[in-house]
Structure formats: C-alpha cells, structure tokens
## 1
Amino acid sequence: MNAIVVTGAHGQLGRRVVALAAGRGDGTEVRAYSSADLDVTDPDAVAAVVSAGATVINCAAYTAVDAAETDEARALAVNADGPRNLARACGRVGGRLIHVSTDYVFDGTATEPYEVDADTAPKSAYGRTKLAGELAVREELPEAVVVRTAWVYDNTGKNFVTTMRRLEGERETISVVNDQIGSPTFAHDLASGLLAIETRPSVVGRTVHYTNAGQASWFELARAVFARIGADPERVRPCSSAEYVAAAPRPAYSVLSSRAWLDAGLPPSRPWSDALTAALAQSR
Ligand SMILES: NC(=O)c1ccc[n+]([C@@H]2O[C@H](COP(=O)([O-])OP(=O)(O)OC[C@H]3O[C@@H](n4cnc5c(N)ncnc54)[C@H](OP(=O)(O)O)[C@@H]3O)[C@@H](O)[C@H]2O)c1
C-alpha cells in the first residue's frame, strides 16, 4: 500500500495536506508527524519514519522570517539539514520526496514572474536557509520534487489573512505595504497541488512553482479581505516598506511563474481572489 509521510503536520500547510490526503479515501496510508512527533533535524528519527515506496511531503520549516535574522543557525538546521535528512533517508530506502520552498530565494528585482531556473539571490536569512535546503535536497536525491510557493495563508492560525481579520475588529484604520507584490496562496489549494504531484511522474527531479494565479500587493490583499468580510476597504491605507520596518528584508516582487507546473501537465491553480473568497467562506 502507498504511504504518505507528512512532516510539520501541525503547520498550516501540513494540516491541509493531511486532511486532503486522508479524505481521498483511496487506501493511502497517511502518516502525519508534528514537530513534537518528529524533529526533522534528527537524522535517526527521520530514517525511522521513511519507508520504501513512501512519499514524504516536507511541510516542516522554520518560517519565522524576521526571527531568522538573529537565529540563522537554527533556521539552517530546520530548513537545510532537515530536508537533507529526509532526502538521504528517501534515497536509502527508495522513498520519494516532495519538498516545499519559497519565493524568498529570489531577490525581488524582477519585473516579470520568476521562472524555475531564474537566478536565486535571497535577501534574508530565511531565504538563504531555504535555498540551502533546496540545494541539499538536489544533492541527496536528484529525483526529488521541489515546489516553491509564496504568501501562504489559511482561515485559521497565524497568517496575514487572519491578522487582517483580527485588526479589522481592533482598529479603525490600518496601514499595509503597497510596494511588495506577490501571489497570495490558500494553503488548501497548495496542499491539493502537492497531492497532484504525487501521481505525476512528469515532475520527477524537477523544481516547480505553485501559487494561486495572479498577483497583488499586501495592501490589495488586505483590502480584499476587508471587502469579503463586509468591512469598508477604505479603512486599509497604503504605506511603503520604508515606513513599515521589519527585521528581514522582503523581495519587492516575487511572483512565481507557473509555466513549469503547467508544462508538467499539472492542474492550473485558481485566481487568488477566488481562493480568498472560498477560504473566508469556509471560516464562516
Ligand atoms: N507561510 C508562507 O507564507 C510561506 C511562503 C512560502 C513558502 N512557505 C513554505 O511552505 C512550507 C509550509 O509552511 P507553513 O506556512 O505551513 O508554515 P508553518 O505553519 O510555520 O508550519 C511549519 C511547521 O514546521 C514545524 N517545524 C518547525 N521545526 C521543525 C522541526 N525541527 N522538525 C519538524 N517540524 C518542525 C512547525 O512546528 P512548530 O510550530 O511546533 O515549530 C510547524 O508546524 C514551508 O516549507 C515554508 O517555508 C511558506
């Protein structure tokens, strides 16, 4: 019987992957490991859970982008040593690996969507550690699939969309940066994309990009959230990244091209605005 091993299973993406995989009802065994069940930085623990023929979907990561600036060693352990351990374990027993990476491997100076083979040049510690993870995976298991995504949110937990909903109830107006452009991505849709890969030999050994379609600034996304929950979008005011100081620099433009994804015969993603509507409807 096929098995899917999900690491970081209590994160926003991990939860969705587990729920969707279990809900398929096709007899696949779904083995979900939270960070408490499996520390991906522990090579022996990783080797113990990867079995022949299993597909590992690595949703574990150090995702605190600002904290990583002063905690890069820990971020590197989770984001690079972790995937290396998983790739090595898969290589040893004949397992498969789908590893999730980020738009933050790019510097954000592009003016059109990044193709999968565009030059990487991370600006932040988080981005550097995630790029190191991609390279470690490639080194250990050339047939692994690396999926870069961006601006992931869900309707629960701590993410940009839930933060906007909370702030809508707390403040009359909020300022949100309008000079960073990306593609908001609903964790449910990304999870479904990752599971689609599992059955496609066409992506073996490749790097692909998956986000919801289209692009927006954080400001536009915030206004879209307000509009969908019945609040006045004018209460969201634009500001610049220079005005909203964060520890880690972010790419100004990190839209990811879906060309490689579509060329591999994988299903197109829906527009981010439709996905956002669906996400907020689910939480009502
Ligand atoms: N969120 C985004 O906007 C975004 C954008 C681009 C790419 N991505 C990528 O998408 C993937 C999923 O991210 P997410 O949004 O689901 O993040 P998340 O909600 O922070 O989930 C990450 C999970 O990894 C777990 N984890 C941390 N250290 C671990 C370790 N040593 N061993 C095992 N598990 C560990 C965390 O557990 P604890 O909470 O217990 O530490 C958490 O449950 C990551 O690869 C991330 O880099 C995310």
Note: The longest strand covers residues 96-102.
## 2
Amino acid sequence: MTPDYDLLVVGGGVVGTLLTISLTRAGFKVLLIEKGDFTNRNLPSDRCFALSVSSCNLLEALGFKGLLQQYGNPIKGVVVTEGFAGEGARGEILEFKPHEIGKDSFGCMIRERDLLAALDERIKNEKLAQIISFTKVIDAAPDQRTMQVMTSDGESYHAQLMAICDGKQDKLGEDLGCNYVGKSYSQGALSCTIKHTKPNEGVAYQFFMPSGPIAFLPISNHSVSIVWTNTCSVIDRLSTIDDGTFLRELRPVFGTFLGDITLDSTRGSWPLELSLAEELVGGRFALLGDAARKIHPLAGQGLNLGLRDVAAFVEIIQTARQRGEDIGFADVLERYQQWRKFDSFAFVATTDFFNWIYSRSFPGYDLVRQLGTGVIAKIIPFKSYLIKEAAGLAGDIPVLMKSNQG
Ligand SMILES: Cc1cc2nc3c(=O)[nH]c(=O)nc-3n(C[C@H](O)[C@H](O)[C@H](O)COP(=O)(O)OP(=O)(O)OC[C@H]3O[C@@H](n4cnc5c(N)ncnc54)[C@H](O)[C@@H]3O)c2cc1C
C-alpha cells in the first residue's frame, strides 16, 4: 500500500501545529488530525508562555519574527527566591541577568492565543498540509511499510510515520505500548493576568512558598501573567470565587513590590502531573511535546522542551530523506530518541526536585536550603549552566534553534 502522506501528526496544540508547519516547509506531505475545533480555538484562559531564546530562534527561522516583535515581551531578568505570604522575598536570592550568557534577554513572554492565532493563520497557506478538525485518532497500527490510523469518523489514513502530539490527553502512546513513569502532584496551577502600577522592567519573579511556587511573568511593563501553584482544593476554590475575593486572597501573596494590583483576565486552572515516557519512539511513531513528558510548570519549560523535540525531529527525518532512508525506519527513530531522551529526563528530575525541596518548611531544613541557594548564587559556572539550560542554549542544539545572527 502506498501511503497517502509522509507523516500523520496527531494533535494540533502548539507542538503539533508548529511541527506540521516545519515539516511542510521541509517538503513533507502532512495530515494533521485534531479532535477539537482548529478554526476556533476558544481558549478558556489568558495563559502565557515564557519562550526560551532557542524557542524564539525556532519561531524566527520559521518566519514568525513579526509575531515575536508584535506580541512578545522580552524577559530582561529572572529573580528566584523563597517567599512567604505577606512577607515577600526572604532569604537568599538567585538573580539571573541575560548579559551573563551574552544575550539581551532570556527569550520572551507571549500569550497562548496570539501564538496559536499566528500558527493557525500560517498553516492554512501551507500547501503540503491537510487539516482535519473535530476528529479523534482512536487507533493506530504499524506494518512493514506504513502506519495506519483509524479516526472517530470511521476513516483510515496511511503514512510512513506518525508523530504523536496529543499532550497525552488520549494516551495514544500508551495504547501503542509506551510505558510512562510519573505521579500526580496533588497540586494544581492557576493562571491569569494581573495589572500593576509600578513597572516590572521585564523581570520575571519566582517565589517558592511552602504551599507551592508562584511566578510573576512580565507580559508588558505594567502587567504580569501569574502561575500560582497550590493544592488541588485551594486551586479549585481560587478558580471559582468572585474576582474581588480572589484579589483579596492574592494581595498578601503578591505583596506590594509592583504597586497596586488589579485582575486583567479570566482565570484558568490545570491539574499538575509528572509523566515521562520510557521510550520516545515505537513502530513507525514518535512522541513529541507533552505526549513525551509533562513537567511541573515552575520552570516554564514544558513547551520549550516540546519545541526542541520539533526541531530535532524535523532535522533527523530531513537528513534521513536526503540519505534515501525510510523516515519511519527504526534506526531513524532511534536517532531522535537518543537526542531527546536525556533532556526529557533531566528536566523532569530537576523541576521535580526544585518543587520538592522548596515546598517544605521546618526550622533546620530552611537553613540548609537557604545555604544551598546561597552556594548556587556564588558558584559562577553552575549558575551559568542553569541559565543556559533555562535559555535552551545548553547541549546539542538543533540547527533550527541556533541563532540566525550566528
Ligand atoms: C499553567 C501552565 C503554565 C505553563 N507555562 C509554560 C511556559 O511558560 N513555558 C513553557 O515552555 N511551558 C509552559 N507550560 C507547559 C505547556 O503548556 C505545555 O508543555 C504545552 O502546552 C504542551 O503542548 P502540546 O501541543 O504538546 O500539548 P497540548 O497543548 O495538550 O495539545 C494536544 C492537542 O492534541 C489534541 N488531541 C488529543 N488527543 C487527540 C486525539 N486522540 N486525536 C486528535 N487530537 C487529539 C488536543 O485536542 C490538543 O489540541 C505551562 C503549563 C501550565 C499548565
């Protein structure tokens, strides 16, 4: 059977959509299948993403420089510290400046809706991309030469290779035999936009509270996107109380360092889980984005890792095609797995460790933790390693993510 497409992409979140654009630009014929409404995203909240330097490079390389200039807000500094409701920052402070890695910024903040709107507009014009909305992939079966997928509307499609970008929502990877390790954090995250009267100067703040971290991420000089982590029951309550009561609860946590605050968006909330696929590939398929791993949002890296999957995946299969290899062949997929597996594991472990270590508070332990933070602040090579990781500039960077300015 001759395959209808080179690739099937399952899931049209940011990862699946950007993957489809990257693949078609590299000359592959792609079918993207999305279970939701691709033409009207109708996002429930005003969530924003911190995009690393390398993710911004990828978007620029794919022709989205204008999007970043118009809607991106550069992150000019990062402050990480412990915080306590009503007391603000406390103890040792870790402060990161982009010039420490020779950059003007650590990347930028962007609203999910602006990013998706630009991707959706672009994909419509990609001649090699076909999109099917409101259709779920319900089953998939590889054979010697193709991957066949069955969809909820009773159709089936063939391609050489399937990229699973389903955010692990429908567990397609598991159905195909992938094992995941992980746990529920028994925590949720709430996100919304807050306006404030004093300028933030583009600095992102991460306060580690005993109940979970809270981040203030600069979306303009006078507004931040907050990501507030707490137990599921607290997050459920914070999501449903009225705006006035919410602000009264937020004020003592937020503190006054950015002046008076007002709510500037609806609130969205997400349950948090840690999950890591033990294998990133199988018979004629590969896992990308949250389908490959889900991490705690405290480091703002989940999407950045997914975009790195995209850039590495495209580079590998493009090279394979140039060499005349079958792109769905196990050896080709193994190269993707080798490239991305360690990164996946390292971030899952690091974010889990930070969440664990800072979500505890008792006397002797607090002192040890503060000493640890102080040591990190003073060991310059370790600190710059952490900054490079966060900027997406550590390790083997895919070509599409390297700076276009050289
Ligand atoms: C509060 C919060 C803040 C965050 N902030 C940041 C940040 O600042 N920076 C960062 O890098 N990351 C951040 N993240 C992580 C980031 O949101 C995720 O890593 C990213 O959105 C994952 O994208 P994805 O495309 O892989 O998955 P998803 O966004 O989950 O998309 C999956 C898509 O697949 C579709 N789908 C599912 N099953 C099927 C099926 N069977 N058939 C067809 N379609 C299907 C779904 O409808 C969906 O459109 C944050 C996460 C949270 C919760």
Note: Residues 175 and 256 are 49 Å apart (CA to CA).
